[in-house]
Amino acid sequence: MTSPSTMVAFSLSIVVTALAALAQAQTPNVSLLIDDPYYYDLAQSLDVRSLLPFVSLRKGAAFHWGSTYSYPAAAEANWTSEKFSTYWGHIVAENDCKWYATEPERQDFTLSACEGVSQYAAEHFATFRGHNTFWHNQLPAWLPGNVTASDLVNNVIPTHVSTVIKSLGWNVTSWDVTNELISDTATYNMTSLECVLNADRWPTVTYDGGSTPLVTNLSFAYAAWRTALMYDPGKLVYNDYSTGAQDAKTECVFQLIADLNINASIPYNRMGVGFQSHVGAQEGYYVPKAELETTFARLAALGVDALVTEMDLWIQANDTINQRYQAAIWGDYLDACLYASNCFEFVNWDNRDDTSWITPGDGHGVAMATLFDMYGNPKPVTYEIMARFARYAEGAAEMCATALGTESCTVY
Ligand SMILES: *[C@@H]1O[C@H](CO)[C@@H](O)[C@H](O)[C@H]1NC(C)=O
Ligand SMILES: *[C@@H]1O[C@H](CO)[C@@H](O)[C@H](O)[C@H]1NC(C)=O
Ligand SMILES: *[C@@H]1O[C@H](CO)[C@@H](O)[C@H](O)[C@H]1NC(C)=O
Ligand SMILES: *[C@@H]1O[C@H](CO)[C@@H](O)[C@H](O)[C@H]1NC(C)=O
Ligand SMILES: *[C@@H]1O[C@H](CO)[C@@H](O)[C@H](O)[C@H]1NC(C)=O
Ligand SMILES: *[C@@H]1O[C@H](CO)[C@@H](O)[C@H](O)[C@H]1NC(C)=O
Ligand SMILES: *[C@@H]1O[C@H](CO)[C@@H](O)[C@H](O)[C@H]1NC(C)=O
Ligand SMILES: *[C@@H]1O[C@H](CO)[C@@H](O)[C@H](O)[C@H]1NC(C)=O
């Protein structure tokens, strides 16, 4: 006779076995380029900068590979400078070009910190991208609740966008004109306006979470884009997170860029879509390469660029299988961009694990989400990236999606 307690133990063992199987399925055994002794040796220098001219030559236009900069502590200044001289060749200001930093009081602009990041890029012979001219977060206190809709659309936004963009001039590859307008709970067949209103974010509400609508149409977005078109010589980018797959939020991105094209007269060939790519090394928490490529190709057909703008990738556990999975996924994202006809910028977010905004727990596993560890040392992904660039620069054909695991993709 089976006692209730044995039944519990029995079903528990099934659950544990099932969970173990699930965990195994979520962290596949992957194949990496750096398993090949040729690429392993080649990757040791981590001198990606020396490869970028050859990458650009194959792409037919400059390829920008970079990360964030935010005036590091003295102890990390030399490390940072060395990385922006050898590993990354492109820089985005983590915070210093945002609205709260650039216009802390109305029409009283403080652009020196933002311009200083551009200056730092120039000193490192690196290129610079702008982030951002419009976002509902990191706003100055004077703004969100204290202006009328018509003042916002007709004065506040045009003044802000034109002043910030003009201050950086011709040194910018692209600007994130509007950041994160679209709802996380978007559904298929929403109009672009519905995609935005559903987010319940300022300025379609008075404050985030507040219920009083400030603007009820997309005039605020048109104002930002029309102004950017006048002053920005580079690409104008719509930037967002949890996008890139074949899903409703990404569908909203296509609705929004069509709306901007028709109603704000923004030519598609001046536009880019930024895929932030704050992702995790667990099935369902990153976009499979094939889906990214489908999305990038759909943009290419319109004449719109695709950019990876803020990549970081947390892992579930601090062990070899997870570190390798991280390298495989990051490598797939890079390949998706390299082999796309319309992707010329790939930017990572935060330079090392000790300064990353992704911290352990909080649904982010053990974090370890950047390209260098907490001491600034390289990881498998750091080398794998160098190997992917080398392979592309050599003219090799695109390879399979390594994140699918060795059963579907063995590299060599
Ligand atoms: C991982 O894949 C490689 C290549 O297919 C294989 O040799 C190795 O045994 C696999 N390791 C595990 C733990 O399954
Ligand atoms: C950084 O490098 C400079 C020049 O090589 C050196 O003088 C300085 O001591 C270094 N700073 C730190 C914190 O290592
Ligand atoms: C480009 O950047 C350099 C270095 O920061 C600066 O001296 C120059 O004025 C900038 N050019 C424009 C057009 O802003
Ligand atoms: C704008 O509104 C915010 C929130 O109510 C308030 O804290 C702030 O003091 C106001 N600023 C100005 C300049 O009125
Ligand atoms: C609704 O969205 C689905 C998925 O994109 C699409 O197949 C369908 O054609 C859409 N329907 C309408 C009426 O647009
Ligand atoms: C859109 O909203 C703005 C700001 O509230 C308003 O001034 C404008 O009349 C609206 N446009 C349309 C077509 O409703
Ligand atoms: C342009 O705006 C109108 C009015 O808001 C809207 O009905 C239409 O769908 C928009 N066009 C596109 C392509 O989104
Ligand atoms: C990850 O594991 C390695 C090897 O055990 C250890 O040296 C390192 O401190 C760990 N890192 C973190 C962030 O726990």
UniProtKB/TrEMBL annotation:
Transmembrane segments: none annotated. It catalyses: Endohydrolysis of (1->4)-beta-D-xylosidic linkages in xylans. One of its GO terms (biological process) is xylan catabolic process. Its EC number is 3.2.1.8. Residues 1-25 form the signal peptide. The keyword Lyase does not apply. This is Beta-xylanase. The lineage of its organism: Eukaryota, Fungi, Dikarya, Basidiomycota, Agaricomycotina.
